[in-house]
Design brief:
Helix content of chain C: 25-40%
Number of helices of chain C: 14
Largest sheet of chain C: 8 strands, mixed
Oligomer: heterotrimer
Strand content of chain C: 15-25%
Shape of chain C: globular
CATH class of chain B: Mainly Alpha
Chains: A mainly alpha (315), B mainly alpha (294), C alpha/beta (330)
Strand content of chain B: under 5%
Radius of gyration of chain B: 23 Å
Shape of chain B: elongated
Structural class of chain C: alpha/beta
Chain lengths: 315, 294, 330
């Protein structure tokens, strides 16, 4: 058991190292000379050389990487040239919670709609419910989230005025207000997931309901709802979590678009603005952070497996 | 006996029919997708003849107009003809979508083949690079490459292609490793067939169909990412007729002139649905390994 | 006991005036156009054990599934009557049928590994019917589940309560399955090939265990088996099924000793016995359900078949204390 854990740990560390190396490579590849950008238009050779030395840019690349990594681990991510803000504060303390809240809320909405839809589609296979769910799945999965967001803003934000069209209020400061502001963005992002979740729930449940242990539960006199929702769904959770984890890339893709459409100050917004402003150091922080997030979620999904499937538990 | 004879005598054309055409013809929703895509392809190819206006010609006197006889789908805030821009936008979306996937596929397959066949240190290094590419979501990767490469149509293709290298490389390597251990590869080697010939004759044909299925499914992601990047303002630059740009432009006028974003938005949505239908169909037809509904 | 064994169902009814526990009369089950069970009739007295014998596809398991109500309309179409303790099962409401399942009627599945839910502990699964039908408290359920596990020969039941199915061996899993089926002391136990998924070495043990428990609870049991000799050894009576019909039914010893129906004879000569010189397989295969012959379903494979066999279906006749459906009983 110790061996398995340490192997997993070593693997994760290697991936983290690769992620950091990739982020560092990005910064090195970025166009423009960081020293001249920092100094502005007016500088002398002496001040240029001095800053180059201070930044350690006259050192070998590997050394620079080591220093950069050490700074990164310490939370010293540099300062934005434009807003003069500490980048660690900007990325981790301000942007990250927004993106995570949006993602969590969207996922919640998608699960609340997607799972019952998938179950109904499986129970009433080939009925209109099934057709509707399949259509929803294909449509929701393909519909570009940024255009959906615009339509939602138009209809529910401007025309009907039910929800605020733009902006963000932190739910941890004012929960209900925050939820109200987050509803349209979460629906926009969640729409993409609903179809996927409904589809996986449907196909997995159909497979599970054909298993002998389902017949055995019925033979014990268990009522139909319990057979489906307890004995059946308990076994559907595994494939569901797998897919949710695998589709994290799609989730983040949607999150970037959604944040920009609804002007939410999240990671996607931060990276987009930074790319437009050519603030590569901020872009790099965003890249690194999403990479870490990716690794973390994959680890979490792995852990959930053991929680969900007793057969994978180590004793 | 006769059957066996028939199979050996099957001409190349009919074999192609049996292996590739018939499985696809059974996927009805894929055919619907294919038909829709065909309409887009025709619109894209014949855009110069079908268009009524120069897609980039501005006419501020005729801005923000609804659909009319002069402008079939209306005009945007610069007075550009939306119908003509829609046609040229289809051209751009399809070119970028297919070109980026094709480039990513070639590079990814090359890396995957090299890693899978050479093994050892080369494989380790190549696969760690691939791990690095796969450690990030595609959009973030594409955004990073756009930041490095700069804006513009060509760079969008390169950025997307680079962000697709990882999945293709990993798939190819996996397939190669699987095929490499098959007895017939061993047999071919023992008979003294040169390595290149072994790859060409035996390895590639076995990995080609899952990779093409993957490519088919990637095209819709590529088009979505392309229009997304342009929407964010870090893709194609104006006044190029691009759907993402058109949606971004129409966003400000959504209440006054919903058609500005509606025309490209709906066109994009329908194309993506069609590509998804085709992609799912291709997977069901040629890739027995993946589950049918999943 | 012996007297009851020797009587045909009708005779038993008249003689004792005692209603059979289970009475199946002219029962047919169709799935679309396929007639899976065709005019099946049999009766089971309290405390009696019956073996349903036949090749796979004969409809034995289907009959068991229909008896416990897992195959019902609209999934399949039922005709005829299934009476359990005087209650007509075919027209019973689902909610009422549910009160019988796992309570008055228990079912042991063929493959316990597949029939135990991998995500719940065995204790939880044994406790389910105790909660549903007996309404026991959580504490009582645990106590009773442990006692049940003890009764089916699972050592250290208290420790095993919280084990997941995959942590037990195949034999232990089947014991758990038996404990679940017997949890509420059912009057009728259905066992669908209870040992065929197990290692040969523990098959006898498990069979013995089921019989012991059934006798102790004074329940009736129906065993679905494909082995005629095993059936005759284990059960009071035997019903031989072929392609959805019962072709011969009667006391075990007599059916095994002197089978009357050609199919039963064929089955018997398939049994490999030590010292027997010849092994005669039955030629051909069971016809597909949607292409059943019009007359006797066994006719195409029957060595004694004549013109009439292909035209009209033979009805069961009482002969030598048993029921046989054949035109040429000699």
């Amino acid at each position: 058991m110790f061996q398995a854990v340490s192997a997993k740990l070593a693997q994760t560390l290697l991936v983290l190292l690769i992620v950091s190396a990739a982020s560092f490579t990005f910064l090195k590849l970025a166009p423009g000379d960081p020293v001249s950008i920092m100094l502005g238009s007016d500088y002398s050779k002496a001040s240029y050389d001095q800053l180059t030395h201070e930044l350690g840019l006259d050192q070998p690349v590997l050394f620079q990487y080591g220093k950069w990594l050490a700074d990164f681990v310490r939370g010293d991510w540099g300062t934005s040239y434009i807003t003069n803000q500490d980048i660690f504060e900007l990325a981790v303390l301000q942007a990250l919670p927004v993106t995570l809240t949006l993602a969590a809320f969207s996922l919640l909405i998608a699960l609340l709609i997607g799972i019952p839809t998938g179950v109904l589609a499986a129970l009433y296979r080939n009925s209109w419910v099934d057709v509707l769910a399949t259509t929803l799945a294909i449509g929701g999965n393909a519909f570009p989230s940024f255009y959906l967001g615009i339509i939602l803003i138009w209809v529910f934000g401007v025309d009907l005025g039910w929800f605020p069209a733009l902006g963000f209020v932190a739910p941890w400061e004012d929960f209900w207000e925050g939820l109200w502001y987050l509803t349209l963005p979460a629906v926009t992002l969640g729409a993409w997931y609903v179809g996927l979740i409904a589809r996986i729930t449907r196909s997995s449940l159909l497979e599970v309901l054909g298993q002998p242990y389902i017949a055995a539960a019925r033979a014990r006199g268990e009522p139909g709802w319990r057979v489906v929702w307890v004995h059946g769904m308990r076994n559907v959770l595994m494939p569901l979590v797998t897919v949710i984890g695998l589709q994290l890339g799609g989730m983040l893709r949607g999150a970037v678009m959604t944040e920009v459409v609804f002007a939410l100050p999240g990671l996607g917004m931060m990276v987009t603005t930074a790319v437009l402003n050519r603030e590569y150091i901020v872009v790099q922080a965003g890249i690194m952070l999403t990479g870490l997030l990716f690794v973390a979620v994959n680890l979490a999904v792995d852990q959930t497996y053991q929680f969900l499937d007793p057969r994978l538990r180590r004793r | 006996m006769q059957d066996a004879l028939k199979i050996t005598l099957l001409s190349g054309a009919s074999q192609w029919k049996r292996r590739f055409l018939q499985p696809l013809l059974r996927q009805h929703s894929a055919l619907v997708g294919l038909a829709i895509i065909a309409v887009y392809v025709i619109a894209a190819v014949f855009a110069p003849w079908l268009a009524t206006h120069d897609p980039a010609a501005q006419d501020l006197m005729a801005s923000l107009q609804g659909p009319s006889a002069a402008h079939w789908l209306g005009t945007d805030s610069y007075g550009q003809d939306l119908y003509s821009r829609l046609l040229y936008g289809a051209q751009l979306a399809l070119i970028i979508g297919f070109a980026s996937v094709a480039l990513g596929l070639v590079a990814g397959v090359a890396i995957g083949l090299a890693a899978g066949l050479m093994g050892g240190r080369t494989e380790w290094v190549l696969m760690r690079i691939v791990d690095g590419l796969l450690a990030f979501p595609e959009l973030i990767l594409a955004m990073a490459f756009m930041a490095v490469l700069g804006l513009g149509t060509e760079n969008v293709v390169y950025a997307l292609a680079l962000s697709f290298v990882g999945p293709f490389a990993r798939m190819t390597r996996g397939d190669v490793l699987q095929v490499k251990n098959q007895p017939y590869i061993e047999a071919a080697r023992l008979m003294g067939v040169p390595t290149a010939a072994v790859i060409w004759r035996h390895v590639l044909p076995n990995v080609v169909s899952p990779i093409l299925v993957q490519a088919g499914m990637r095209v819709s992601i590529a088009i979505l990412l392309e229009s997304g990047l342009s929407f964010l303002g870090i893709g194609v630059v104006p006044p190029t007729p691009d759907w993402g740009l058109m949606i971004a432009e129409g966003r400000a006028f959504i209440t006054m002139a919903p058609w500005i974003s509606g025309v490209p938005g709906v066109a994009l949505a329908i194309l993506l649905v069609a590509l998804n239908l085709l992609g799912d169909g291709l997977r069901d037809a040629y890739d027995p390994n993946t589950r049918k509904d999943a | 006991m012996d007297a009851a064994v020797a009587l045909t169902p009708e005779a038993a009814d008249q003689a004792a005036g005692q209603a059979p526990l289970l009475e199946v009369r002219d029962f047919s089950l169709r799935r679309g156009k396929a007639v899976v069970l065709d005019g099946v009739s049999l009766a089971l007295q309290p405390g009696e054990t019956l073996g349903l014998i036949g090749e796979s596809g004969a409809g034995k398991s289907t009959l068991a599934m229909a008896l416990i109500g897992l195959l019902r309309a609209p999934e399949v179409q039922l005709e005829g009557s299934l009476r359990f303790r005087g209650t007509e099962l075919t027209s019973l409401k689902e909610a009422e049928f549910r009160r019988l399942r796992g309570n008055k009627i228990g079912l042991i599945f063929q493959d316990a590994t597949a029939a135990l839910n991998p995500c719940f502990t065995v204790g939880e699964q044994i406790a389910e019917p105790l909660k549903r039908h007996l309404g026991l408290s959580k504490w009582d359920r645990r106590e009773r589940a442990a006692a049940l596990m003890q009764s089916v020969g699972i050592p250290e039941p208290r420790l095993r309560l919280d084990a997941y199915p995959h942590e037990l061996s195949g034999g232990m899993q089947q014991r758990v399955m038996i404990a679940i089926a017997l949890a509420c002391n059912p009057e009728l136990l259905l066992a669908d090939e209870p040992t065929s998924a197990l290692d040969v070495t523990i098959q006898a043990q498990i069979m013995e265990l089921i019989l012991d428990r059934v006798r102790e609870l004074n329940s009736s049991a129906i065993f679905v088996l494909h082995d005629l000799a095993l059936g005759a050894q284990v059960c009071d009576r035997i019903a031989v099924m072929y392609a959805g019909q019962i072709v011969e039914e009667g006391p075990s010893e007599r059916v095994l000793a002197a089978p009357l129906h050609p199919y039963t004879r064929g089955l018997k000569s398939c049994v490999v016995e030590l010292g027997s010189r010849t092994l005669v397989p039955i030629p051909g295969q069971v016809p597909p359900l949607d292409a059943m012959p019009a007359g006797c379903r066994f006719a195409p494979r029957c060595p004694k078949a004549q013109a009439v066999c292909g035209e009209r279906r033979p009805l069961p006749e009482t002969r030598d204390g048993r029921q046989v459906a054949c035109w040429f009983i000699d």
